[in-house]
TrEMBL record:
Residues 83-251 form the YprB ribonuclease H-like domain. Residues 397-416 are annotated as: Disordered. GO terms for molecular function: nucleic acid binding. This is YprB ribonuclease H-like domain-containing protein. It comes from the Bacteria. It comes from Sphaerobacter thermophilus (strain ATCC 49802 / DSM 20745 / KCCM 41009 / NCIMB 13125 / S 6022). It holds the Pfam family RNase_H_2.
Length: 416
């Protein structure tokens, strides 16, 4: 069975003979509303849709946007300066043999979301599609995609290069997949666009076409010219762009007011870790502390990571006493789990020994950790704990030795 690349190559016109005439069938303009856009290297079909739902238009309320949290160094932009991109291709693995046959671009115009879909009826129209795409993208200052940095945009750039184009686009690229994963991967089974759409917005497409089937549907169209089979492909692409807009709006609102937008503490913890990673320390610390108020609702792996990150940042900012209640809770929880997590015991012992100067409390923490290791039959970290315990006891002995001479020394006689 031939690969998709081989089948597409077979459909490419040979330079030695004229292009094969397009099959009769049902033309695309009889199936999808649109027009043929002429250009210097040929014409391309462009479908156009307008969306005016409130949840799609809500992004317009954020003006201007400062997306530097998601794209370090990105400029402040207005919603009308953003273009949302989604593509449909002849293969899902990428590579030089993969063609982009449908490019959907969404942008705001006159208070509504306008989606334009650039479609090539066959490989011979690829130069015309790319030329139209180059012109359509030029005015925008930010490109938003979903996994576009890894898939869509490299494919488009590769096709430009193959055809001798070297366009320079002056926009920042926000791949919304990465912040979405940071925020929601701890709670959701997957962070595919379709699962985010269903889980976050309650949207379930009743007649959607699965993405893996789309390349075959395009090859069938190339074979028989019946564009009716592509109607669900255009709808799929169109809805992906609308969801991309909703997701961008949700992330912007969550960043501005996480406590009111993100109901689940795991989502708030995910955003807090993103804030800390981007250097927004005060907001990240406060949000992480807020999320950990409902620690029992958070996955154990995320909860531990959040607690460790919060305590480390508090230490770095000379706010170590604020981490003490956190370490105590972690110790109590660790005592019920195997293997024993020694991190909170070690941190608490160091605090009592070196900062609070409470050697009795430090000794008690280390002894508790050693008892739990014995109870569990575990040996990891035991030698380090014993070394710490010996040092604490030596300090206690020296402290007692300094006190004893003053207690037992000669008493001064009465002043006569």
């Amino acid at each position: 069975m031939r690969s998709l690349r081989e089948r597409l190559a077979a459909l490419q016109p040979s330079p030695a003979r004229p292009a094969r005439p397009r099959p009769a069938g049902v033309p695309i303009d009889a199936v999808v509303p649109g027009r043929y856009l002429p250009g210097p290297v040929g014409e391309v079909f462009v479908a156009e849709w307008a969306r005016e739902e409130d949840d799609v238009r809500r992004l317009l309320e954020h003006a201007p946007l400062a997306p530097s949290l998601f794209v370090p160094g990105a400029p402040t932009v207005h919603p009308e300066e953003i273009v949302f991109l989604d593509t449909e291709t002849t293969g899902l693995a990428g590579g030089a043999g993969t063609h982009v046959f449908l490019v959907g671009l969404g942008h705001f115009e006159a208070g509504r979301l306008v989606v334009r879909q650039f479609f090539m009826r066959g490989p011979s129209e690829e130069p015309a599609l790319l030329d139209a795409l180059r012109e359509a993208l030029a005015p925008f200052r930010m490109l938003v995609s979903f996994n576009g940095r890894a898939f869509d945009w490299p494919l488009i750039e590769g096709r430009f290069i193959i055809h001798g184009y070297r366009p320079r686009f002056d926009f920042a690229h926000l791949d919304i997949l990465h912040p979405a994963r940071r925020v929601w991967r701890h709670r959701l089974a997957s962070c595919t666009l379709s699962n985010l759409e269903a889980s976050l917005f309650g949207v379930r497409r009743s007649e959607d076409v699965p993405g893996w089937l789309i390349p075959q549907m395009y090859f069938d169209y190339l074979r028989d010219g019946d564009a009716r089979r592509l109607r669900p492909v255009f709808a799929h692409n169109h809805e992906d762009i609308a969801t991309l807009v909703r997701l961008t709006d949700l992330l912007i609102r969550a960043t501005a007011a996480p406590e009111s937008v993100l109901d689940h503490p795991a989502d708030r913890a995910g955003l807090a870790l993103l804030l800390l990673n981007r250097g927004e320390l005060m907001r990240g610390i406060d949000l992480l502390a807020d999320a950990l108020e409902d620690a029992d609702q958070i996955d154990p792996a995320l909860r531990r990571r959040a607690e460790v990150e919060l305590s480390r940042w508090l230490k770095r900012l000379d706010r170590t006493p604020e981490a003490v209640p956190l370490w105590r809770k972690m110790c109590d929880r660790a005592a019920r789990r195997r293997p024993l997590d020694l991190y909170p015991f070690e941190e608490l012992a160091k605090y009592y020994e070196h900062q609070a100067r409470d050697l009795v409390a430090a000794e008690a923490v280390v002894e508790r950790a050693l008892r739990l290791l014995d109870l569990h039959g575990e040996y990891h970290g035991r030698s380090s704990l014993l070394h710490r315990l010996e040092r604490i006891r030596r300090k206690q002995a020296r402290a007692r030795a300094r006190v004893r001479p003053r207690e037992t020394g000669p008493t001064a006689g009465p002043v006569g």
